[in-house]
């Protein structure tokens, strides 16, 4: 059987031409061996078992076919939290951490702080906020049963089971409730966008990616409904496409939100827009 270093060299050759063959080879091998990067560096000559080598080849072949690494290994890190992922949900992305950062700036760590994450998917946003705000009451919703079950699983595994995940479309599971903060990373890509046939998004559920009205339909719906679910002075924060800042700001302003702002992601692209309901 090949050694750790030999296995990585083989994988890098197989993955040549991809975006990050060295990183992908390492991450997949760490998953197979259930080890960290230090182990790979410390024991490069250690041989894989026959079962490990077979599994490694299988997973690398999936990545060569274009399957995202997060789906290949079944997990992704977000906000230093290890999350289980599946093809039923979007893969949490680093830029979404900007939404978490802005949310933390808008709420106080009081026992009566109520937060809801709409379209939670893996639960990434809700769980990140719950991990930082142990006194807050955090809720989440998703239309799809598979996503709800996945978010509940992640919450349990992370010891954040106080996050209440409900099945339903956007606000529908929370009729009569009021929140201090509403956050969402809804579908915002135009169905005609050519990028949908490229890269990792080819493997992600289109229902979590695309929205009508040039990607604005779900954002419009959330913005329309949010005033009925926000406490006076509460905030709505939305992730959106890099070219949607103007449209989203106009939507929020038209719905009566004030102090409307937009924050850029780590790549300098407009990514999160929010507004506050008047007190």
Task: Provide the fold topology.
Layout: H1 4-14, H2 21-33, H3 37-42, H4 50-64, H5 69-73, E1 75-78, E2 81-84, H6 97-106, E3 114-118, H7 124-132, E4 137-142, H8 145-157, E5 164-167, E6 179-184, H9 212-215, H10 217-229, E7 230-239, H11 245-254, E8 257-264, E9 270-277
Parallel strand pairs: 3-4, 3-6, 4-5, 6-7
Antiparallel strand pairs: 1-2, 7-9, 8-9
InterPro entries: DNA_methylase_N6_adenine_CS, HemK-like, Methyltranfer_dom, N5-glutamine_MTase, PrmC_N, RF_methyltr_PrmC, SAM-dependent_MTases_sf
Domain Methyltransferase: 110-240
Keywords: Methyltransferase, S-adenosyl-L-methionine, Transferase
Walk me through this protein's architecture.
It is an enzyme of class 2 (transferase). With about 280 residues, the chain is α/β, with parallel strands linked by helices. The protein has 2 domains: about 5-65, Orthogonal Bundle (Helicase, Ruva Protein, domain 3); about 90-275, Rossmann fold, CATH 3.40.50. It has helices at about 5-15, 20-35, 35-40, 50-65, 70-75, 95-105, 125-130, 145-155, 210-215, 215-230, 245-255; strands spanning about 75-80, 80-85, 115-120, 135-140, 165, 180-185, 230-240, 255-265, 270-275. Strands 5-4-3-6-7-9-8 form a 7-stranded mixed beta sheet, sandwiched between helices. It has a two-stranded antiparallel sheet with strand order 1-2. Strand 8 and strand 9 form a beta hairpin. Helix 2 packs antiparallel against helix 4. It starts with a helix and ends with a strand.
């Amino acid at each position: 059987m090949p050694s750790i270093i030999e296995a990585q060299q083989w994988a890098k050759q197989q993955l040549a031409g991809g975006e990050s063959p060295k990183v992908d080879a390492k991450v997949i091998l760490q998953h197979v061996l259930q080890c960290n990067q230090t182990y790979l560096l410390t024991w490069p000559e250690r041989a894989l078992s026959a079962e490990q080598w077979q599994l490694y080849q299988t997973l690398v072949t999936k990545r060569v076919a274009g399957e995202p690494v997060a789906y290949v290994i079944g997990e992704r890190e977000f906000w230093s939290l290890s999350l289980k992922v599946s093809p039923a949900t979007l893969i949490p992305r680093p830029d979404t951490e900007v939404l978490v950062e802005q949310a933390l700036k808008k709420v106080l760590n009081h026992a009566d702080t109520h937060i809801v994450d709409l379209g939670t998917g893996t639960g990434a946003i809700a769980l990140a906020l719950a991990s930082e705000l142990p006194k807050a009451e955090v809720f989440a919703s998703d239309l799809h049963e598979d996503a709800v079950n996945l978010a509940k699983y992640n919450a349990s595994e992370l010891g954040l089971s106080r996050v209440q995940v409900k099945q339903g479309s956007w606000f529908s599971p929370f009729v009569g409730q009021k929140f201090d903060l509403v956050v969402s990373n809804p579908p915002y890509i135009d169905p005609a966008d050519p990028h949908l046939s490229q890269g990792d998004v080819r493997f992600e559920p289109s229902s979590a990616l695309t929205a009508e009205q040039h990607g604005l339909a779900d954002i419009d719906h959330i913005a329309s409904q949010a005033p009925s679910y926000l406490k006076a002075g509460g905030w709505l924060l939305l992730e959106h496409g890099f070219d949607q800042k103007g449209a989203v700001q106009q939507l929020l302003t038209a719905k009566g939100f004030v102090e409307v702002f937009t924050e850029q992601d780590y790549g300098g692209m407009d990514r999160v827009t929010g507004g506050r309901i008047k007190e």
